[in-house]
Amino acid sequence: MPPPPPHAPEPDWPIPTFNFRIEDLAHPGAKIFLDRVRPDVALRDAVVTVCSWLYTPETAPRNVQCISLVLRPMPGVAHTFGSPTHKEIHLSLDHIRNCESRAKDEIIGVLTHEMVHCYQYNGLGKCPGGLIEGVADWVRLNAGLGPPHWKREAGDKWDAGYQATAYFLEWIEGRYGDGSIRELNENMKDKEYDEQIFKDVTGRKVSKLWKLYKEHLEEKHGL
After folding, report:
1. Residues 124-183: tens digit of each pLDDT
2. Residue 42 in contact with residue 107, Cβ under 8 Å?
3. Which residue in 51, 140, 169, 221 has the most C-beta neighbors within 10 A?
4. 116 and 139 in contact (C-beta within 8 Å)?
């Protein structure tokens, strides 16, 4: 028998150092997290997922040296902040407790969304917040981590953010080819954001893309 084909080497993604802190070990959300998730594996997998959808091994940013995950009681779900080299993701223990029935999927999904914020480009700080959040949820969606309540709806504007914009970006990727959203992201690396990036990638203005997307939803889904 011929020898099996060699395995392709794993891409050389830039894996930073990870830190992990729980600010209230007695909180029910802490036990749920520790029972369902290995933080080192979850964080590494999130980095690989984000880099796989937004970059190639050659283009992935290598400035992030350390990412800290902090679990603490707080309102909301999660947020991310930091410097170009050190990022901090804060995840709500209350949210984990409230999502106990599907805690692992929700934790991994939220970590993937927040990890996008550690690595995505933002048009030198000028990118609309709706597009920033939409790209993060687009990666989460493509990773198969969208929660059950997400719906494909047109909404009022293309940059409404989160899943509304994520589904719009998914449609662009499907219509204009794999790598379209990666290219949009890349076009925000070294210059201020301008809506022209959509035309550069697709040949159409974002207003026209939004019109076509809404027509697609109406035709395919009756929305």
Report:
1. 999 999 999 999 999 999 999 999 999 998 788 999 999 999 999 999 999 999 999 999
2. yes
3. 140
4. yes
